[in-house]
């Protein structure tokens, strides 16, 4: 089963280590950031399924981090649970008004936190705003992103088609196929983080069709980085024999033995709106 990805934004080393050890043992993949700026960058690059966010951080407070995540298209729908020593009702209301999904006060019971994490993940799955395997926006969230970019200028829309996925899943199974989708979404978000802007978004239309909406001032570099990441990563999902041979051998009842190409991706610019004189695209944060 594909591991759920949790991002922990917490500056207290002891708390962070305890949570990392506990949730790793529960089968989660954990990313950690010791301050707000690193947390925002990691959220954009890793697309976690859920974020555990401390309010009291050394650079910017958790409320500002939450506000930034909720106003950035790529991270807008990621569930957020606040961890804080504050127990005032006003602070809780403020966090929830910013779009946090839950709020737990330190010191907390770790089993209660585990249940709250599971509950937030289940709600996110029911609402179907993001795909649980990739963390990418789907359905109504894509329409919202399209509408937001329609009002801007100086943007490109890239269409990415994942070829060979159905054959890979039939040959290697659903677990391996889910791992491919997770890798694929990480590659998209990492490349946007490095070569795009904070306003960019990756979206999942289906298992094999994706879009990138970007204000990047250097789209060729973005495309080149994505192609390189996929060409490097796809072969690692095959066994040695298939990888060296360069194709799968499958049996068909009607045609007999068939050679099936390995995973690949087609990337094309399908829409472009020219920038106006007032547009000043921001470079992606490191």
From TrEMBL:
Upper lineage: Bacteria, Bacillati, Chloroflexota, Candidatus Thermofontia, Candidatus Thermofonsia Clade 1
GO molecular function, one term: phosphorelay response regulator activity
CDD domains: REC_OmpR (cd17574)
Residues that bear 4-aspartylphosphate: 54
Domain Response regulatory, first and last residues per copy: 5-121
PANTHER family the UniProt entry points to: DNA-BINDING DUAL TRANSCRIPTIONAL REGULATOR OMPR, REGULATOR OF RPOS
Cellular component terms (Gene Ontology): cytosol; protein-DNA complex
Protein name: Response regulatory domain-containing protein
Annotated GO biological process: regulation of DNA-templated transcription
Record-linked InterPro entries: CheY-like_superfamily, Nucleotide_cyclase, Rev_trsase/Diguanyl_cyclase, Sig_transdc_resp-reg_receiver, WalR-like
Keyword Phosphoprotein: yes
SUPFAM superfamilies, alphabetized: CheY-like (SSF52172), Nucleotide cyclase (SSF55073)
Record's keyword terms, sorted: DNA-binding, Phosphoprotein, Transcription, Transcription regulation
């Amino acid at each position: 089963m594909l591991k759920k990805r949790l991002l922990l934004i917490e500056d207290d080393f002891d708390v962070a280590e305890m949570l990392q050890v506990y949730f790793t043992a529960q089968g989660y993949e954990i990313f950690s950031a010791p301050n707000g700026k690193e947390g925002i960058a990691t959220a954009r690059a890793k697309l976690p399924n859920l974020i555990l966010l401390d309010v009291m951080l050394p650079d910017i407070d958790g409320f500002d981090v939450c506000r930034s995540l909720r106003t950035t298209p790529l991270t807008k729908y990621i569930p957020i649970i606040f961890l804080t020593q504050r127990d005032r009702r006003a602070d809780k209301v403020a966090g929830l008004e910013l779009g946090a999904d839950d709020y737990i006060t330190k010191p907390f019971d770790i089993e209660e936190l585990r249940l709250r994490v599971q509950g937030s993940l289940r709600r996110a799955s029911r609402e179907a705003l993001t795909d649980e395997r990739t963390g990418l926006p789907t359905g109504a969230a894509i329409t919202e992103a399209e509408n937001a970019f329609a009002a801007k200028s100086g943007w490109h829309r890239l269409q990415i088609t994942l070829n060979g996925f159905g054959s890979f899943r039939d040959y290697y199974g659903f677990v391996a196929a889910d791992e491919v989708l997770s890798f694929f979404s990480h590659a998209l978000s990492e490349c946007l983080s490095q070569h795009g802007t904070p306003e960019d978004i990756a979206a999942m239309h289906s298992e094999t069709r994706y879009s990138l909406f970007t204000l990047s001032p250097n789209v060729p570099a973005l495309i080149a980085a994505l192609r390189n990441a996929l060409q490097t990563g796809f072969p690692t999902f095959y066994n040695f024999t298939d990888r060296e041979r360069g194709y799968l051998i499958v049996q068909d009842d009607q045609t007999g033995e068939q050679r099936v190409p390995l995973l690949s991706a087609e990337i094309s610019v399908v829409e472009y709106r020219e920038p106006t004189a007032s547009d000043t695209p921001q470079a992606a944060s490191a």
